[in-house]
Amino acid sequence: MDQQNRPLRKAAPAKRITLPRARKPAEIREIFERFRAANPEPKGELESVNAFTLLVAVVLSAQATDAGVNKATRKLFTIADTPEKMLALGEGTVREHIKTIGLYRNKAKNVIALSEKLIAEFGGEVPATREALESLPGVGRKTANVVLNIAFGETTHAVDTHVFRVANRLRIAPGKNVLQVELGLEKAVPPEFGRHAHHWLILHGRYTCKALRPECGRCIQNDLCDSADKRVT
Q1: Domain 51-152 sits in which CATH superfamily?
Q2: Does the first or last residue of the chain, that is N or C, have fewer Cβ atoms within 10 Å of its Cβ?
Q3: 25-42+156-224 has which fold?
Q4: Which residue in 81, 107, 109, 160 is the catalytic one?
Q5: How much is the CA Rg of the chain, to the nearest whole Å?
Q6: What three-state secondary structure class fits 9?
Q7: Annotated binding site for [4Fe-4S] cluster: which residue ranges?
Q8: pLDDT tier at 231 (50, 70, 90 boundaries)?
Q9: Average pLDDT rounded to a whole number, residues 55-77
Q10: Which of 2, 99, 107, 142 is catalytic?
C-alpha cells in the first residue's frame, strides 16, 4: 500500500485535566488569617525607590530572581531613577548594568523604549491603569498587576509561578493557567486580605511550598493541605 492510500490514524483524545474543587470561603479565610498572623505586613523583595524604578525592576525580573535583579539595579537606580535619566544613559550603558540578568539585551531595549514612551505619552510618570501600563514595552499583565498593587495600592493578584502553585495546592483558586488563577483569586480572597494576598502566596511558594521539595513539616497550612504534592514527614 502506498503512502497516499494508507488509512489515517485517529488522533489520540486530548487528556483532560480535572481541577480540584475550590475550598469553602471559611477555609480560605482561615488560610489568610494564618498568613496575616505570621507576617502582618508582607513586602515584595524587589528593591526600588519610586514607581518608575519598581516598574523597571519588575520588567527585569522576568525569568530572573529578585536577588539577581537587586544586585544589578542597586547602582543603576542611584544614577537613573527617572525615565529621563534612564534615557540619557542609553541602551548600551543600561545593558552593561544589567548584563548579569537573563535576557539582558532585550530587557535593556525595553527599558529604554518604555522610558521613551513614558516621557512622550505620560509626562514622565508611571500610569496608574492596567491598560496604560500594558501599552509599555516589556510590560504584561503580571507586571502591571505588581505595579498597581505596590505603587498605587490597588488590590490586584499578580500570578507568577509561586502564586500559581500555591493557589492550586491549597485549592484557594484552582486553575489551568495564570489568568484562571488570577480571576479565581479575585473572587476567593476576602477583601481585607486582598492588598497583601499575592505577597503572602509568593513568599510561601518561594520559601516553604517549593515546587520540587515543599517543606511541609514547617508549613503553617500543613493541616489544611491535601495536595498530592504534600510530603509526609
Answers
A1: Hypothetical protein; domain 2 (1.10.340.30)
A2: N
A3: Endonuclease Iii, domain 2 (1.10.1670)
A4: 160
A5: 21
A6: coil
A7: 209, 216, 219, 225
A8: confident
A9: 96
A10: 142
